[in-house]
Specification:
The longest helix is centred in the last third of the chain and has 31 residues. The protein has 836 residues and is an alpha/beta fold. The mean pLDDT is 96. Helix 12 crosses helix 14. Helix content is 43%, strand content 15%. The radius of gyration is 28 Å and the shape is globular. Among the domains are: 160 residues, Glycosidases (TIM Barrel, Alpha-Beta Barrel), CATH 3.20.20; 119 residues, Maltooligosyl trehalose synthase, domain 2, CATH 3.30.1590.10; 99 residues, no CATH class; 90 residues, Sandwich (Immunoglobulin-like), CATH 2.60.40. The protein has an 8-stranded parallel β-sheet with strand order 16-15-14-5-2-1-20-17.
Length: 836
């Protein structure tokens, strides 16, 4: 199999085209990248900023350069000895009139050749939730008419710029006779004769006839489990793999599919054994990928979570939590908060999906368990969804795998032992349906219920945790990351080492990520914010002082102050994370540039929290007050605060830069394939999307790399520009290319650190036959940034002792006997020693 030594994730669109990527290949080659890892490049809705809203899976987007531009890029990659990995989207397509298949379904209804390509419930009319209000109101306002479709010339029901094709035969007489129709009664009758119905976007959470991606009604689920649909949606993908143009595929949202294992098996059969496959999959605590999936691993969110064990100060995190509770004026019970977020999702945001699932259960219950009250089944289903601890199980028509059956049993036990116990018979009934223990007469319905249940638990978990809870509870934003555990836990090097041993055993060829297009903040912002756990009282004092300095800009609204203390804590922390290293209080242009990005983030954070405003019902007065507060913080006229903020932030900045290098060194040497997200080879202080999807300044990055030999660890400029980080990456990626077996299969050996500074160092080794690598990196240095860590010593096991080594970072050669200290490798805080 073609396993990368390092990937580079490039976000196409937002200015990046195939031509732009081609021009970057020499830079990526020099950096040490083996494979370009491309975001979706198939034709998407016009103006798409991400490409996941595919309208034609069998066309390379003309907006990016089309097939010719793509082929030139591939040729340049091959000439450079590099490969290509494509991000593909089998779960959904755009529910857009720009999608010819979707348009055909609207025009022909269930008679369309594509009617069953999409996951549509044809027991009702196809819902089109794209009106600004309900149909009757839109009709009464005169916003609907019949006009000729500018593409086909056929009659269409027009709503602003949207032309919904009318089904042939749904009107009398010649087609031209109804053009220009605005009579409300006739329009209503014509609308009623369509196999689809227009509705308000606000009603989508409650009534939708098709499976959507998460809460996005503009993305319709695809029935890729069907062999014909698979063939139709993968024709170009398979051609590109078979021709050798594409070396690997990243599967987006694998948990959305009806049968992930079945899909992956089919895909593997078509792409062959050498194609590198990874899946976007969030693993819960202790969860591993199913062993029968024919993939190399995940895209690496669990690796981000593992790094927090290295960089979080577990000895002090409770003091940060206490300071946060003092700010809130109450003690937060995270289990209760998680439950509240899940309840909101089940009862409101996914009410339609829940209701459809309940209807399936009740239909089976009337035959299998007629004595069960509807209310009991409803409550049991609700609690089962809320209690689900992972994204999903992987049951099929044959029932649940043994591990998933055991998980279900444990969940049922937890529900009945907890404060929200339900009717045991109702819970047993649902468990029997999920496990496939039902009569043959309802087996097909049970399979459908199981599939729908499994396709709901993932979005429910993601929207509850990542996009609600993590925007409400902000003790330390660094911990509110995709794939992170929502409940409090301990952090330890022992746990990290155990995770890496498991990673080597379970998925040594998985991607190791530190930033992605979906992470909540850039890796260097996260590295900086980890340091709050090292100085909780200092941080709390800063926030209290800053709040006082800006108190006059807090607005008193009918429902309370804006912002409340909890939101202010979040705002100051987010600002601390994103603050450019060298930005000064008197830099008006720099402050303005930051404000534009930061205000967009704050608005999104407020809406995702879903407390005083959200995406469905915006609270304009509240939002405006908080956004004005954020703008005031960055106003050049707010000089006293800005000077205080910049000065107070310096120790966090310095410690964060150390953390940045530590997580970089670990990513490049621990088990897994390091993935460099665009621009993250230098410093990445981005905020959540869309900020993290902007194109980096590649001219500046190339200039930094040209001068990599000048990366002086004793130069503040080398640290603050990101050059030192880029230098580390450059050196270690080339080492990975020289010693691929060591990094892919080498044993992972935790090394014991002793001495008075033992807590401030992580040490491990990789060993493969006679090849050996020793990694030493600092941690928890907020209070000891000037220390050399010379007091820490590492005893070397026999296979590492009495050997000659070379430090990849400093170039120094050294002979090690039975121990190593940082003083013995030149006194530089970091060391990556490779056996000579």
């Amino acid at each position: 199999m073609n396993i990368p030594t390092a990937t580079y994730r490039l976000q196409f669109r937002n200015g990046m085209t195939f031509g732009g990527a081609t021009a970057l290949i020499p830079y990526l080659k020099r950096l040490g990248i083996s494979h370009l890892y491309a975001s979706p490049v198939f034709t998407a809705t016009p103006g798409s900023t991400h490409g996941y809203d595919v309208t034609d899976a069998n066309e390379l987007d003309p907006a990016l350069g089309g097939r010719e531009g793509f082929d030139r890029m591939v040729s340049a990659l091959k000439a450079a000895g590099m490969g290509l990995i494509l991000d593909i989207v089998p779960n959904h397509m755009a529910a857009s009139l720009d999608n010819a298949w979707w348009r055909d379904v609207i025009a022909r209804g269930e008679k369309s050749a594509y009617a069953h390509h999409f996951d549509i419930d044809w027991s009702q009319r196809l819902t089109l939730p794209f009106l600004g209000d309900d149909f009757d109101t839109v009709l009464e306002n005169g916003e609907l008419s019949v006009q000729a479709d500018p593409v086909t010339g056929q009659p269409a029901l027009v709503y602003y710029d949207n032309f919904y094709p009318l089904v042939a035969g749904s009107w009398q007489g010649e087609a031209h006779a109804i053009l220009g129709l605005r009579d409300k009664a006739q329009l209503a009758a014509l609308h009623d004769r369509q196999p689809w119905r227009l509705m308000s976007w606000r009603d989508a959470p409650n009534s939708l006839s098709y499976r959507r991606f998460f809460e996005i009604t503009g993305l319709v689920g695809v029935r890729v489990e069907d062999e014909t649909v698979f063939a139709d949606t993968h024709a170009l993908i398979l051609e590109l793999v078979r021709s050798g143009a594409v070396d690997g595929l990243r599967i987006d949202h694998i948990d959305g599919l009806a049968d992930p294992q079945g899909y992956l098996t089919r895909l593997r059969q078509h792409v062959g054994p050498d194609c590198y496959l990874t899946v976007e999959k969030i693993l819960g605590k202790g969860e591993q990928l199913p062993g029968d999936w024919p993939v190399s691993g995940t895209t690496g969110y669990e690796f981000i979570a593992a790094l927090s064990d290295v960089l979080v100060d577990d000895a002090n995190i409770d003091r940060l939590r206490d300071a946060w509770h003092a700010q809130l004026g109450r003690t937060v019970d995270m289990r209760s908060e998680l439950r509240a977020a899940k309840l909101l999702m089940v009862d409101r945001n996914f009410n339609g999906e829940f209701t459809a699932l309940l209807s399936l259960a009740l239909a089976m219950g009337r035959r299998e368990a007629p004595a069960l009250p509807e209310s009991a089944v409803r409550q049991a289903l609700r609690e089962l969804l809320i209690a689900f601890p992972v994204y999903r199980t992987y049951g099929t028509a044959q029932g649940l795998p043994a591990a998933d059956a055991a998980l279900l049993h444990k969940m049922m036990d937890n529900i009945q032992r907890g404060p929200h116990a339900v009717d045991p018979q109702a819970l047993d009934f649902l468990a029997a349906v999920l496990a496939g223990r039902v009569a043959e007469s309802v087996a097909s319905e049970a399979t459908r219920f199981r599939t729908r249940f499994q396709q709901l638990t993932g979005p429910l978990m993601a929207k509850s945790v990542e996009d609600t809870l993590f925007f409400r509870q902000n003790m330390d934003l660094a911990l509110n990351e995709v794939g992170a555990e929502p409940l409090p836990r301990t952090f330890s090097l022992a746990r990290f080492h155990a995770e890496m041993k498991t990673r080597l055993a379970q998925q040594p060829d998985a991607l190791s990520a530190t930033s992605t297009h979906d992470t909540k903040r850039g890796e260097d912002a996260r590295a900086r914010l980890y340091t709050l756990t090292e100085a909780p009282e200092y941080w709390a004092e800063c926030v209290a002082r800053w709040r006082q300095m800006n108190q006059a800009n807090v607005v008193q609204l009918d429902d309370g102050p804006a912002p409340r203390p909890a939101v202010a804590w979040m705002i100051y922390q987010a600002l601390a994370g994103v603050w450019p290293v060298d930005l000064q209080a008197d830099d008006a242009a720099g402050l303005q540039a930051l404000e534009e990005r930061f205000v967009t983030f704050v608005e999104k954070a407020l809406r995702e929290a879903k407390q005083r405003t959200d995406w469905i019902e915006t609270n304009d007065a509240y939002e405006q007050a908080v956004l004005d507060y954020a703008r005031h913080l960055l106003s050049p006229n707010n000089r006293a605060f800005l000077q205080d903020f910049v000065t107070s932030l310096q120790p966090f900045i310095r410690a964060g830069l150390v953390n940045s290098l530590t997580q970089t060194v670990i990513k490049l040497t621990a088990p897994g394939v390091p993935d460099i997200y665009q621009g993250s080879e230098a410093l990445n202080f981005s905020l959540v999307d869309p900020d993290n999807r902007l194109m980096p300044d590649y001219a500046e990055l190339e200039q930094l790399l040209m001068a990599e030999e000048q990366a002086d660890p004793h130069s503040q400029e080398s640290w603050s520009s990101g050059q030192l980080k880029q230098f580390f990456i450059y050196r270690l990626l080339h080492l990975r290319q020289q010693m691929p077996r060591l990094f892919r299969r080498g044993d992972y050996l935790p090394l014991t650190v002793s001495g008075e500074q033992s807590d401030n160092l992580i040490a491990f080794a990789r060993v493969e036959n006679q090849q050996a690598l020793i990694v030493l990196a600092p941690r928890l240095l907020f209070g000891a940034l000037d220390g050399s860590l010379a007091g820490a010593s590492i005893v070397l096991p026999p296979q590492l002792a009495n050997r000659q080594y070379r430090d990849i970072l400093s170039g120094e050669a050294i002979f090690l006997t039975n121990s190593v200290t940082l003083r013995s490798v030149g006194g530089f805080t970091f060391a990556v020693l490779v056996s000579a």
